[in-house]
Design a protein that fits this description.
The structure is a homodimer. With about 210 residues, chain A is α/β, with parallel strands linked by helices. The first copy, chain A, has ten helices and five strands. The first copy, chain A, has helices at about 15-25, 40-50, 70-75, 90-100, 110-125, 140-145, 150-160, 165-170, 175-190, 195-205, and strands at about 5-10, 30-35, 55-60, 80-85, 105. The longest helix of chain A has 15 residues, at about 175-190. The interface of A and B includes residues 12, 93, 197, 205 and 213 of A. Chain A binds a DNA duplex (30 and 30 nucleotides) through α7 and α9.
Chain lengths: ~210, ~210
DNA sequence: GCCACAATCAGACCAAAGTCGAAGGCCTGA
DNA sequence: TCAGGCCTTCGACTTTGGTCTGATTGTGGC
């Protein structure tokens, strides 16, 4: 690390942001630190500063919808290492975070020293996104085939948006959105938008028991 | 407030604890600040210092089991005002927190200034009603209006079934299913099948919430 | 008996979802 | 440089979803 590193801290809780920022500022003097509270702000910040050395990402942020946000960011900015900072300790969440290309996973219950240490390790390249090893036939594997634009469409589908709304938000025609949806459904191996939403939400919500009438 | 106040901060995340402690330390110079990471530690701390002026309590802590921890603490130490600090924004959680005797409810997304302000208000004896005093009808409330057959239809919708499949499984015509779906959507206050599935799955799976810090 | 309501269905109708084919832009390797 | 592949875009078309009107049947309560 020749020059001072630059960080992007993404968390919707000001407390957490401040705590991380001050800890990183002390551990890495002169470091550039940007903040984001929503997925949209993360994207905007990465657009402005594509050379960010590490993104500290909270999973529970507006617009993230769980793990789908990681995949979206990874497909848009594959160079930026993502360090997931989450309170979720479920092994399946951790594993899927890695499947989607996270460089590290830090439990929010960890001490600031541990967090700083992990960040440093990522900066040194000691920890990197594990290669897309042979994964079981999981939904995550199928989902990894989606293109950036398709992820954007899926992210909005998951929020319950209709094709028309998605088209407006993405600035494209409704026909385009429909085409993307068609490809998404085929790649995910489902037959309808509703099933796609259920599966994709399952990424953020493991252990989904069917409702009994 | 003649003397400096004493606080007990209960949160299992060191980051949050430190952030709250430093904010309160600055806002209330000379204040006594104790920490706790589990329900047991909260009880021990209150045993040692029954004159605590305010307990800042996180809902998602080991041993808390959600809102029942509030009731337990209230029954053991009725004089200690409890300020719930949680990431859960669900109206029902907020409402129940008040039902169990919380003096205030702070969203973790709030700024430190807001938090300090709320704590100060509680110290002054202002147990003020939350902005969410007029709670909107919850999804669960709306869902309770469904008839048994409508529940069956919704259960199959949640599994991703199409109207035709639902009709076959229930042994009725597709027109009937459509009629039910129309009523379900209206009762749930959503505009599409996909939105209904999203809402209903969020209701049936509270396991989705523990992911939040 | 009367009333309210759940459940069933038909037919018409409009909106949304989804499929198919095709065009243009961009990158890469021959 | 050109061919081939991929992403993105879109229009035209088909299918499904959802609403509305209206109707029949059965059930339980007053």
């Amino acid at each position: 690390m020749v020059t001072a590193p630059s960080f992007l801290i993404a968390d919707d809780h000001p407390m957490v942001r401040d705590a991380l920022a001050s800890a990183l500022g002390q551990a890495f003097p002169g470091a550039g630190i940007a903040m984001a509270a929503t997925l949209g702000q993360v994207q905007a910040a990465l657009e402005r500063e594509p050379e960010t050395d590490a993104l500290l990402l909270d999973l529970d942020m507006p617009g993230m919808e769980g793990l789908t946000g990681i995949a979206l960011l990874r497909s848009e900015y594959p160079i930026v290492p993502i360090i997931v900072v989450s309170a979720a300790r479920e092994p399946i969440v951790v594993r899927r975070a890695y499947e989607f290309g996270a460089s590290a996973y830090i439990d929010k219950s960890a001490s600031l020293e541990e967090i700083v240490g992990t960040v440093g390790a990522v900066l040194e390249g000691e920890i990197f996104a594990p290669p897309e090893a042979e994964l079981p036939d999981s939904f995550a594997q199928r989902a990894a085939q989606l293109t950036p634009q398709q992820w954007r469409v899926l992210a909005l589908m998951i929020q319950g948006d209709q094709n028309k709304q998605i088209a407006h938000k993405l600035g494209v025609g409704e026909a385009t959105v429909k085409a993307h949806v068609t490809v998404i459904l085929r790649k995910l191996g489902v037959r309808s938008r509703t099933q796609a939403v259920i599966e994709a939400r399952g990424l953020a919500i493991p252990a989904a028991e069917p409702v009994r009438p």
